[in-house]
Queue: 2 jobs
Job 1
Amino acid sequence: MLVTIKFRNKRIKVFNLIFLILVICLVFYLLLSLFFSLPFFKSDYSYDHDGGNYKVNTKVTFNNKWFNCYVTEILTIKTIDKTIYDAYVKDLNHDGYKSFGKNIYKRVYKTNSFCDSVKKDYKRVHDGNYSLFKLNGYNSYNIEYKSDFTDPYVVSKINGKDTKKVDVFSNLNNNKTGSYVISYNLKVDNYYTKRLYRVINIVDSEKPIINLIGEENVALDYGSKYVEEGFSAIDNYDGDITSKVKVKNTIDTKKPGTYKITYSVTDTNGNKSKVYRNVVIKEKNSAVSKTEPIIEQKDGITYVNGIIFVNKDYSLPEDYDPKVNKKAYKALEKMQNDAMVLGLDLNLISGYRSYKTQKELFQKYALKDGEEKANTYSAKPGHSEHQTGFAFDIGSVDRTFENTDEAKWIEENAHLYGFIVRYPKNKTDITGYIYEPWHVRYLGVDVATKVKASGLTLEEYLGIN
């Protein structure tokens, strides 16, 4: 019985010893933890990073826990546009940062050394002179839809040495408009990756094309019905957008005058286009002259209803030399100046021509193309309107002039200055000359407006065709 008791006492003593050792270790651990938590073992560091098109402030805390250093980084994004912001946040998440508030991200990692050496290495790596990383070219580019882009790349150095260890990522798609990002990543050390971003804006600045079906210039009899001949619209980005075309039509067929139908369309990228169709409503019963024209001959000059008239059948004397008409020339200058304000060039190509000059000109054309053909685009001496002093060739006498904005403007507005296009389109059988959109004849605003409204040639209007 006594032996048993001694054995038990010995076991109790061993247990007490072990318990005492554990208590001592715990107290030592707590004291040591308290020791390492003193401010002496904790320090802060902050720095700003300017990435060119984004700015970030980082506050770093180095905290010793036993023989490890815990690094806490709190990163605040200062200035950044949304396109780069989204790309940057994605990269931060990849690096282990978590959202810690609006525009604030946090990361904690552990190193197996004291914070004093960790902080020194951290400051060295993040010093502006340690790594050089910058974009070649510009921070952003605007590239036309479906155009190629050649990346200017970056300049990258670590500790003064060139390095090509740059990872490049991009979501660029030049077949779709929008903003895209090319990101460049330079791994400076195991915990720090430097980043640059370039924004590529794929843009579409090409206007849609509206094509009118039928004639651009239409003449209608008084009171008749206007029937739209149709149109189509094609865009380089959207394709067929005919359904998006808006038509503005204010035609009143019971009110003579010139009307403009406007066709407009806007594509998905905001590019706008407009085209016009001109509709002339003729004077009531203007197709047939109610009275016979008054034709007078004075000194070999023909006057029809008081208007000096010349064409293939009516000529001017060889000695008729009035020079340019001052009133007509003043009206021409006003028309040129108003057109110039709109960015249109109506420079004077040819004005008054004497009988002699016209003779030399026609002979040159006849030698070149033969007299019959020359007579379709050039008048014989004595039959040229230029000899009246009331006619001018403006803009250009090239065949392509017909399709210019200048030619369209002349057609629509010349009557406002007292002029008519003397040889209209599709009227060769009446005038004897091919369409000359550049040849204008001064009649005065009142008569010119009436001729324009009638939709007739001067021969038809005067009733001598």
Note: Residues 42-203 form a domain with the Immunoglobulin-like fold (CATH 2.60.40.10).
Job 2
Amino acid sequence: MSDFRKDLMQSKAALLTGGGTWIGKAIARQLGLHGAKMVISSRKQEVPVYE
């Protein structure tokens, strides 16, 4: 649940580093839920699943 409009990031783009785990993953998820187009990068090719 968010206090922000679902289309808040609709016409925005985001470059997110460290998006594969923990806080970066949570930020990526929220940006996506609010309509942002994203490029997500990580140091590791494979990341553990923490869900």
Note: The longest helix spans residues 22-33.
